[in-house]
Amino acid sequence: MSRTSKRTDGDIVRDFLSVADLLEEPQLAQLYAYVAREGEATVQEVIDELEFAQGTAYTYVNRLVDAGVLEMTREEQPRQYAAREIDLTVTAAGGNRKYTITPVLIDAVGRRETNGDIDTYIDRHGVDGLATALTYAVARECGEVTHRLMAQDLEISPLAAEIVLQALRPIVHEHYEIEDSGASLDAIDIDDHNA
């Protein structure tokens, strides 16, 4: 769902609507993030890894296929599915901030059910706030910012900044190759998140 090719307004709206459920329903986000990380997966693998009930797993996979964010890559049994790349830039309410919906953000949203700190942060700051925090988490892991700078920039307490940065740390390390000298940030544009 990258916007690199010529796209009509209708295509862009359809893309946004197809990922909206991922941002509202953590279990859908978990499923998408799992398939995106694995490259391909069967429904049985989803059931085993995410501990979904069989009926729930099939329902969710079908919903994501219908939404266009998963695609069937093997029709014979067991069917296999792959995640389509999502890269959609959204302007937050008020028009003062933009953020990009990526598999990394969807993964972070998917962890809200199992991570109370992420859940609390989303409740207080919304998904756009989580996208911004994720940008700071990447920058922090690269040694570019501290939790105090994030707190100052976002006008939150240093404790709240540290808590969410710690909660996002495993996600950052799963999606980016971060070394002592910096990170490979091909999938994230820090300027997009802070615009």
Descriptive report:
Helices cover 59% and strands 12% of the residues. It contains nine helices and seven strands; from the N terminus they run ααβααββββααααββα. It has helices at 9-24, 26-38, 43-50, 54-67, 103-110, 116-141, 147-154, 158-175, 190-194; strands at 41-42, 70-74, 80-83, 88-91, 98-101, 178-179, 182-183. A three-stranded antiparallel β-sheet has the order 1-3-2. A two-stranded antiparallel sheet has the order 4-5. The protein has a two-stranded antiparallel ribbon with strand order 6-7. 33% of the residues are buried.
* Structural class category: mainly alpha
Q: How confident overall, as mean pLDDT?
A: 83
- Principal-axis shape equals elongated
Helix share of residues? 55-70%
Largest sheet: 3 strands, antiparallel
Rg over CA atoms, rounded to whole Å, is: 17 Å
Number of helices: 9
Strand content: 5-15%
SSE arrangement, N to C: HHEHHEEEEHHHHEEH
The order of strands across the largest sheet is 1-3-2
Query: For the terminal residues, how far apart are their CA atoms?
Result: 22 Å
Number of strands: 7
What assembly state would you assign to the polypeptide chains in this entry? Answer: single chain
Poorly predicted tracts of residues = 1-7, 181-195
